[in-house]
Specification:
Blueprint: H1 3-10, E1 14-23, E2 28-31, E3 38-46, E4 48-53, E5 57-62, E6 65-68, E7 75-78, E8 89-92, E9 98-102, E10 109-117, H2 124-127, E11 134-137, H3 138-142, H4 144-160, H5 165-186, H6 194-199, H7 201-212, H8 220-226, H9 231-242, H10 246-264, H11 269-275, H12 281-292, H13 296-301
Parallel strand pairs: 1-9
Antiparallel strand pairs: 1-10, 2-7, 3-6, 3-10, 4-5, 4-7, 6-11, 8-9
């Protein structure tokens, strides 16, 4: 398992489809801010439109585009002309997926709208350093054939609701998120973070070693050996790519792994402390409080 996959597991990221929008004429739909733990997304199946973000920033929407809003930022989806005709919005909830539509002249903007739901704590490992919007052309990155295949499966699963449909949609939605993250990394658009560490072939090996064996007494020398680098070179590159020292990242990962054990509820706090490399339950509790903002006992109860 690679580091990004493990972080997605820790963050408990799940994709969900909310509705399909087929919009024509002079349409304009406002979307309010959402709470922590949710990141809306829009996948353009066909047509064109515009997304407006705070500060008058606009993103063109074309077939094959995916827009993810990691912080749940408010936004508006409108037609390309910016002209409004007060076309009535029709909601059809008779099928397995709610359909929102407007009537009017011109091409139809066909959208799948959903959200990524994640644990508010561990989800920050992924989402906190991302920009307000991830905008990627799946058609450009993977080709229209790949996009059409993904869309076809989406349509079939939400239309038939056969056994296991939710699992299929969840997996495909998560794949869309990975595609968006990859695009950010490939274009050099990510600030230093855990994601940029994961994208580095050698530093990513050290990060994965921490995730696989958090109880190990990792030193900078030992982590540098995982990355096949000298101690000084490793420390310098790690802090440049991650904006944190190896020890700080190790502590952060240990606390989020501890949170995962606490959620399961089958281990004592002392046992969890040992699993993540702490011989003293007291020291573990103080570190957990500092990183997670609550004690292990309160976290488990919550």
């Amino acid at each position: 398992m690679d580091a990004l996959t493990r972080i997605l597991e820790l963050a408990r990221v799940r994709g969900a489809l909310d509705l399909r929008c087929q919009l024509a004429g002079g349409f304009s739909l406002d979307h309010e801010d959402v709470g922590p733990g949710e990141a809306p997304f829009h996948l353009v199946l066909a047509g064109e439109g515009v997304m407006e973000l705070p500060g008058r920033r606009t993103l063109p929407l074309r077939a094959g585009d995916l827009v993810v809003l990691p912080h749940g930022t408010s936004h508006r989806v409108r037609d390309t002309r910016g002209t409004l005709h007060d076309a009535p919005i029709v909601l059809d909830a008779s099928g397995p997926l709610v359909l929102k539509s407007t009537a009017g002249e011109g091409p139809v903007l066909d959208l799948l709208c959903g959200r990524f739901v994640h644990a508010p704590d561990a989800g920050q490992l992924l989402f906190s350093t991302l920009p307000d919007a991830l905008h990627v052309s799946l058609a450009e990155a993977h080709g229209m054939a790949t996009l059409e295949a993904i869309v076809s499966v989406f349509r079939t699963e939400v239309g038939d609701l056969a056994p296991g449909a939710l699992a299929v949609v969840t997996a495909l939605s998560q794949a869309l998120l990975v595609f968006a993250l990859r695009a950010q990394l490939e274009h050099g658009l990510m600030p230093p973070s855990l994601l940029t560490l994961m994208a580095d072939p050698r530093l990513g090996r050290a990060l994965l070693a921490m995730l696989r064996d958090p109880a190990h007494e990792w030193t900078v020398e030992a982590l540098a050996a995982q990355a096949a680098m000298s101690r000084a070179t490793f420390a310098r590159h790690f802090e440049a790519k991650g904006k944190q020292s190896p020890h700080e990242v190790l502590t952060l990962l240990r606390m989020h792994l501890a949170a995962e054990f606490l959620r399961r509820g089958d281990l004592t706090a002392a046992a969890v402390a040992e699993r993540v490399g702490y011989r003293s339950e007291s020291a573990f509790g103080k570190t957990f409080l500092r990183i997670m903002g609550t004690t292990p006992a309160r976290f488990r109860r919550a």
